[in-house]
Specification:
Length: 372
Amino acid sequence: MTMRIAIAGGGLGGLTLARILHRHDIPAVVYEREASRSARSQGGMLDLHPESGQRALAEAGLADRFRSQARPEGEEHRILDPAGRTLVHHVPRPGSFSGRPEIDRRALRDLLLDSLPGEAVAWRHRLVAAQPRPGGGFTLRFDGGHSAGCDVLVGADGARSVVRSLLTDAALYPVATRAELSIGDVDRRHPELAELVGPGNLWCVGASRILSAQRLGDGGIRVGISLPADDRHLDTLRSKRALLDVFDGWEPRLTALIEAGDDPPTPHRVEAMPAGARWTHRPGVTLLGDAAHLMPPVGEGANQAMLDAAELAAALAADPADPGSAIRAYEEAMFARIHPIAEMSARVQAMMLSPTAADDIVRFFTKGSTGS
Ligand SMILES: Cc1cc2nc3c(=O)[nH]c(=O)nc-3n(C[C@H](O)[C@H](O)[C@H](O)COP(=O)(O)OP(=O)(O)OC[C@H]3O[C@@H](n4cnc5c(N)ncnc54)[C@H](O)[C@@H]3O)c2cc1C
C-alpha cells in the first residue's frame, strides 16, 4: 500500500518537498492555512545559494525556470553609514549566475506551485492538532472541523509550527525587533529612492540599528528596520513618525525611505530556536525548515529549508518501504548540517545589531559574505 504523506505548510520548504516527491511518483498532500497563493504578500527577495537552495531546485527539475525568473543583478549591494557614506559596494558581473542570484519570494513560490498538480495543495487547511493513531500515523485536525489521516506527517509549518510540539518543547528566544514598509512604483513616484537602493540591497548601518531596503521585481521597494529585541516595545513602532524618531540624526536622504512608505509599519519580533536544538526520533513524523531550526534571518533559512526538503525527499524515495529509517537518516544529517549554520547565524545577527556594527560589518564583508 502507498504511504500517505501529509505536509503541513506550503511555504518554500513544504512545496519543494512535495515537488521532489512528485517527481519520484510519491504522492503527498500539502495542507496550507492560507486561502490561496495570493492571500498574503510573500515578502522581499531571497538569494539562493548554489549548495543549498539552487541544489534543491535542480533536484526539483526547476533549475531552468529559476534562471528565467532570477535577478542576478539583485546581488548588487551597498552598505552605508548613518551619514550616507558608502562603506561597501558590491557589483556582480553582469548576467552572472555563478554566485547567489536573487529571486522574488513570490516568483519562487509560484514556480513551485505551478510545478505541482492542482490537488497537491489543500488551501484553507490550518492544522490545529495531530493525534497519533493506535496503528501508526496521525489524524490531522484542521480549523473549521475537517480532519484527515496520514502515515507520515512532515511539519513544514514555519516559525510557530504546530507539528513541532510532537517532537520537542524547545522554546523560541527573541532575536530582534523588525518593522517593514512597502513603497510601490518607485521609478515613477520616487526616482531618487530607486537610485539610492539600486537593483539589489541597501543596508544603512548605525549603532544597534539597521535601515535596509530591497528592490523587488514588481517595481517596488521593501524597507526593513531592525533593532535589538529589547530596544523598544512593539506598540511604540506602529507609525512612520515613531520609526523616524528611532533614526533621529540620520541623513535625510536615507530616512526618506521611511517617509515614502505606502502604509503604516507592521512591527514584529523576530525569534529563533537555540542553536543545536534537536529531538529524539519518533516514528511517522518529522520537521523541516523553520519548524525544525528557526534561525536568526541572515540569509540561510529559506536555503536550508529547501535543502532539508531535497534531502528528506531523496531519503524517502530511496527507501519507500521503510519511511522510519529514511526519516531517521534525514534527521541525523540535518542536525549535523544545521548546527554550525545556526551558530554562525546567531553570531552574524548579534554583530549586525551591535553598537560597533558598521566597523564589524565592513570587516565581515571584506573577508566573506552573507545573504540578504
Ligand atoms: C526579515 C527576514 C528576512 C529573511 N531573509 C532571508 C534570506 O535572504 N535568505 C534566506 O534563505 N532566508 C531568509 N529568511 C528566512 C526564511 O524566510 C525562512 O527561513 C523560510 O521562509 C522558511 O521556509 P519554511 O518553508 O520552513 O517556512 P515558511 O516560509 O514560514 O512557510 C510555512 C508555511 O506554513 C504555513 N502554515 C503555518 N502554520 C500552519 C498551520 N498550522 N497549518 C497549515 N499551514 C501552516 C504558512 O502559511 C506558510 O505558508 C528571512 C526571514 C526573515 C524574517
